[in-house]
Specification:
The chain is 78% helix and 0% strand. It is an all-alpha fold and 109 residues long.
Length: 109
């Protein structure tokens, strides 16, 4: 966006507020995060095209990131089976412990 801004008409550049690299970086970050404060906006056609493309790129990158994280956090079929077996084992152990305490309580009276 900065290069496009520098190459465009300097009068339009100062009107839009995108005259420095930091302002252009701020504009792209705010646009890509879909916040869009409205404090800076491109004036030229090429600047507007870059803003629209960066907005769509942000949506795609965010969707890919969410998909990757969900895929990494989801258990595979074998992991789910292992978890079920471990849960059954723990349930049986707690059932045996509870039964032993009940029998002990009945016989100690």
């Amino acid at each position: 966006a900065y290069n496009i801004g520098v190459e465009s008409n300097s009068a339009l550049l100062h009107d839009s507020g995108l005259s420095t690299f930091m302002n252009c970086g701020w504009f792209i970050i705010i646009t890509m995060s879909t916040i869009g404060y409205g404090d800076l906006s491109p004036v030229t056609r090429m600047g507007r095209i870059v803003a629209v493309v960066s907005c769509f790129a942000a949506v795609v990158l965010f969707a890919l990131t969410v998909n990757l994280v969900l895929k990494l956090l989801t258990l595979s079929y074998s992991e789910e089976n292992l978890l079920r077996v471990v849960d059954r084992f723990d349930a049986r152990r707690s059932l045996h412990t509870a039964a032993a305490r009940l029998i002990e309580a009945v016989y100690t009276r």
